[in-house]
Design goal:
homodimer, 464 residues, alpha+beta, seven-stranded antiparallel β-sheet, five-stranded antiparallel β-sheet, 18 strands
């Protein structure tokens, strides 16, 4: 392994200006958004085309040097952060929307397009690309697919996986799999794209994707509701689904503690309700027809039956945006306030109330000073069940973090849930996997890895 | 390989009455619905539980005997038909709905449940299981998943793949993978269920599935429309999606020739339109709110602009069912009339008109006596583009069939399409795959097969 030689070849492949080796210029690529993981790669390479990505990966295979693909570097589990010594392959320059086919409700975007760029290309064609999450201005579609991102509208439109019609992937040996189909149905053998989606770059590098688009909703209704309990919130979702079917686009839960952090860190944002219910719901319905009357009717019944304590229906786009602002500021508000222990669990919707009751109680028994900052996506059974401590040292106390995490994860596991609903595994949860996956499932995963990346050079130390 | 010995062990595993070896009793399992494939298995084994399936597969692995899993035996590509000498493993006795979780919008069904049984279990819980296809009274959910079945409501709800939350699978060595999660989001490593869905039993045997349910639509609107061209039909779908968004549940295309076959074979069925447009559309919209006014408005505009030549909106459930009867009788009517060459292609929706124009012209040039009987699912770009001949000998002339099939498939391929949209590969299209898949893609598929079924005993001679 002569790294000098590899660097020379890489510079030939992508141009000398696109191979970074200086500590300062590599620094932003070497740590994650939350500053929890750090590593110094051998170099940062910034190819501009699929052919250049393929050449870089070929060279890495020839030199036996590991590769870490990186998009917007907004991941929360260290999946895109180097551990040290790898070639960090940034996909930022593969940022073209290659084509839009409005009649087919599809487009093809390169991996380095930000999610917002993809959304905009769809909008420009009179269509909707529904994937939506807080980091969408920076996160890239390649990373969204590599981590099977979820976000705000999964309840209606599915995860990133369900929005992909086809992929172009550079395989660990540098060959390019051209799988950019744009079909809703294709049953010609194993659906290979499924293997690469959610694999966090450990099986190959997604360089472009063919994506599903939807009709733009002509009518959107946004509302903020208060409720006394999670059981009431789950029952409310059932009433709404019964009433307006699949028009429920988002149904976000916000614990009062999470809202208080936002209010504290962003005092300019206005709170929608006068009272302080234990739980808040941000509801969005959207579709081709006005649904105000029906939704208002369901909400009125819910108030009458006590499921909802208070409600505000947005009467303008500005008011709807102000409600969403509250939801979207939660991660940043938490970050500003200080370190917290983040969890990203999911359980069946029918077990959400039980999960929170059991986890709250178990944590308070062990850590009387804990504050649970909980928010999430009720329709997906997915909670960001985060833990804050008055004493900032607590949240970085490795032993405390491990004990608290095991409590939360064990309860999720007992209720048929998962320890990572939408953030993936990365470095953060790699060790934890062995606690919650059967040896058989882990061995199947390893067999897949071995069959596609026998050299083990794709994003090592992540996921598996 | 002492087969007598294997039979003894199998009888011990499932009970002697559940191992069939007589020619007569095995006959129904040895041929497919269309009577195109025949094979005599070593025996038919009918386990009743997952543990029994596991034991049977273990024994087959130990004896090196291939296994063919079979559900309702309604496949159209010979994927569930034995070639000869295998253990045919019928899943018909694994027919329990294990649990229904209405609040989580999910249920767990065993592989041998008919699709209709699953639909009924959902209905009984006030929910909808939307997968729907002509053979639903006989086809089993295990087979639906093994072939990633499509059907009538894919446009709105997705293929079988998108409806699966988790699987239980007996692996080729007889181990059981317990992956029956009921989560909308779970990003903990490779999504193994995706590998088994659509694999046609070549990687393992699905014994149970956790399935997604939806809200029952409270309002359904069914209509029958006439149009002059496929371009008009595609434009009409765009208008409807713009107008009512995702409420379009089904948008079925029926060529006038296909309707004529139904009328001829089932003269009691009433045709909805007085005229004879070139193309018919069976439209279904459904949702939580009445949509009659909006849909009527869209249809009226479409009549005005000439996209639609004539329209009937069903005014009763009986009338809606009568319209669906016409659509659902197409396969049986074709079968009664005689052999036809069936195709199951898909292209991007934007290329449907071009596909039909090019394929019609190319076929007529080669076979002036051909009659194209075309129907399909416009929202999925999926056409059953079938060929009938006045002279019945034509449809069984292997050379003619191959030439006609290549014409159809080549054009689909050139337009970015697929040679199997929803029927799978089975035995029928195994050889054809090599013409339309890159060697790289085939080698990736083989690598997957090798890593999970190194002995090659799972449904050999199918798919790969």
């Amino acid at each position: 392994m002569n790294h000098g030689n590899l660097l020379t070849h890489l510079a030939e492949a992508v141009g000398p200006g696109q191979v970074l080796t200086g500590a300062d210029e590599m620094a932003p690529f070497g740590t994650d958004w939350r500053g929890r993981y750090r590593g110094t790669p051998l170099c940062v390479v910034r190819p501009a085309t699929t052919a250049e990505v393929a050449r870089v990966v070929q060279l890495c295979a020839a030199f036996g040097t590991p590769v870490v693909p990186q998009g917007g570097n907004t991941g929360l589990c260290g999946g895109a952060t180097p551990r040290g010594g790898e070639v960090l392959l940034s996909l930022a320059r593969l940022n073209h929307v290659r084509s839009v086919d409005a009649a087919n409700y599809s487009l093809v975007a390169e991996a380095g397009c930000t999610l917002m760029r993809v959304q905009q290309a769809a909008t420009d064609a009179g269509r909707l690309f529904p994937l939506s999450l807080a980091a969408e201005g920076t996160a890239t579609i390649g990373g969204n697919l590599a981590t099977n991102a979820g976000g705000l509208q999964v309840l209606r439109y599915g995860n990133a996986r369900e929005l992909a019609l086809g992929l172009e992937v550079v395989l660990p040996d540098g060959q390019v799999w051209h799988g950019l189909r744009a079909l809703r149905k294709d049953n010609t053998g194993y659906d290979l794209k499924q293997v690469f989606i959610g694999a966090e770059g450990t099986l190959g590098i997604i360089t472009a994707a063919s994506l599903r688009l939807f009709a733009q909703p002509r009518h959107v209704l946004t509302a903020w509701l208060g409720a006394d309990s999670i059981a009431d919130v789950v029952a409310l979702l059932g009433c709404l689904r019964d009433g307006v079917g699949e028009l429920v686009t988002a149904f976000e839960l916000i614990g009062d503690a999470a809202l208080s952090v936002v209010a504290q860190q962003f005092p300019d944002l206005q709170l929608p309700l006068r009272g302080k219910p234990a739980w808040h719901v941000l509801l969005e319905c959207s579709g081709g027809m006005p649904m105000q009357d029906v939704v208002s009717g369901v909400v009125a019944s819910a108030i009458e039956s006590g499921l909802v304590t208070d409600a505000v229906l947005a009467t303008s786009l500005a008011q709807a945006e102000a409600l969403w602002q509250l939801r979207e500021h939660i991660p940043e508000a938490q970050k500003r306030r200080g370190f917290s222990i983040k969890h990203d669990i999911a359980v069946p919707i029918s077990r959400l109330a039980e999960f929170v009751a059991r986890a709250d109680a178990a944590l308070l028994r062990q850590f009387p000073q804990v504050e649970v900052v909980c928010f999430g996506h009720v329709g997906d059974g997915n909670l960001h069940y985060n833990l804050a401590f008055a004493d900032p040292a607590c949240a970085t106390d490795a032993d405390l973090v491990a004990r608290a995490t095991n409590i939360v994860h064990d309860i999720a596991g007992e209720l048929g849930g998962t320890i990572s609903a939408e953030h993936g595994i990365g470095q953060l949860k790699r060790e934890m996997l062995t606690r919650y996956k059967s040896p058989l499932e882990l061995s199947l995963m390893r067999a897949l890895k071995q069959s596609i990346d026998p050299q083990g050079l794709m994003n090592p130390g992540k996921l598996l």
